[in-house]
């Protein structure tokens, strides 16, 4: 899957899956536009990729802010001339707990990043892709986008919304030759899972990890690179007939 001459835009690029995707696309010779809130974390990711400056753009932006989203899209287009792949990946887990105990600050935080942020990325990147007549978008949803998890109500709601946005965008962008898909990872060995584990049971992290791993047929967490490999496939020409699909990357979780 050679991405030489193609530009890949990744939000949430300093996180576990975002960084793994950046490494996977870098290995396939893509030019990279990496977006995150944390400049130092972005620089750390970039330093490990072995990509020269001509093929790399780092951009600090809040995906909830429309002007800043317009800014990262314009910066990418201005630097590289095109946006061939968009990994719409930025997201937060928020506080865990029952719906009846969830405060509005948690609701607003999760929905603003995971839904508003995903929507704004689609809105402004799809304008570029439809104008150029090609492109591939991969949204990051979650297994929480297709099944329910107690204690993760607003995260679950937000990731269901990403699934809906993916399907609508795929239909609307298809006439312009643009594909839109989503990945739904199961438990992945990332900072986000550490946060969820701690929120579920701070006094028994190993027990929570065993419980989550036990929900999968393979009885383990994914490495972020295993999710990135599916993102790479969906972004590539090998997936030229794949659009509007919701790819579960869950080690059989939904089959048990």
TrEMBL record:
<protein>
    <submittedName>
        <fullName>SDR family oxidoreductase</fullName>
        <ecNumber>1.1.-.-</ecNumber>
    </submittedName>
</protein>
<dbReference type="Pfam" id="PF13561">
    <property type="entry name" value="adh_short_C2"/>
</dbReference>
<keyword id="KW-0560">Oxidoreductase</keyword>
<dbReference type="InterPro" id="IPR020904">
    <property type="entry name" value="Sc_DH/Rdtase_CS"/>
</dbReference>
<dbReference type="InterPro" id="IPR002347">
    <property type="entry name" value="SDR_fam"/>
</dbReference>
<dbReference type="InterPro" id="IPR036291">
    <property type="entry name" value="NAD(P)-bd_dom_sf"/>
</dbReference>
<comment type="similarity">
    <text>Belongs to the short-chain dehydrogenases/reductases (SDR) family.</text>
</comment>
<dbReference type="GO" id="GO:0016491">
    <property type="term" value="F:oxidoreductase activity"/>
</dbReference>
């Amino acid at each position: 899957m050679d991405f030489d001459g193609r530009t890949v835009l990744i939000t949430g690029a300093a996180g576990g899956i975002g960084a793994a995707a950046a490494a996977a696309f870098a290995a396939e010779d893509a030019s990279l536009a990496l977006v995150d809130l944390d400049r130092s974390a972005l620089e750390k990711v970039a330093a490990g990729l072995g990509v020269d400056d001509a093929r790399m753009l780092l951009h600090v932006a809040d995906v909830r802010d429309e002007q800043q989203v317009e800014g990262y899209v314009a910066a990418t287009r201005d630097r590289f001339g095109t946006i061939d792949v968009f990994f719409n990946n930025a997201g937060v887990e928020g506080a865990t707990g029952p719906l009846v105990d969830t405060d509005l600050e948690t609701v607003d935080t999760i929905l603003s990043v995971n839904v508003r942020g995903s929507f704004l990325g689609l809105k402004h990147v799809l304008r570029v892709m439809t104008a150029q007549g090609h492109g591939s978008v991969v949204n990051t949803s979650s297994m929480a986008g297709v099944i329910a998890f107690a204690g993760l109500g607003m995260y679950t709601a937000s990731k269901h919304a990403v699934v809906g946005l993916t399907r609508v965008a795929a239909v609307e962008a298809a006439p312009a030759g643009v594909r839109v898909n989503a990945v739904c990872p199961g438990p992945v060995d990332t900072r986000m899972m550490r946060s969820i584990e701690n929120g579920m049971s701070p006094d028994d992290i190993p027990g929570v990890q065993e419980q989550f791993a036990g929900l999968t047929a393979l009885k383990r967490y994914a490495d972020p690179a295993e999710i990135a490999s599916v993102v790479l496939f969906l972004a590539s020409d090998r997936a030229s007939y794949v659009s509007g699909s919701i790819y579960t990357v869950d080690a059989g979780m939904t089959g048990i």
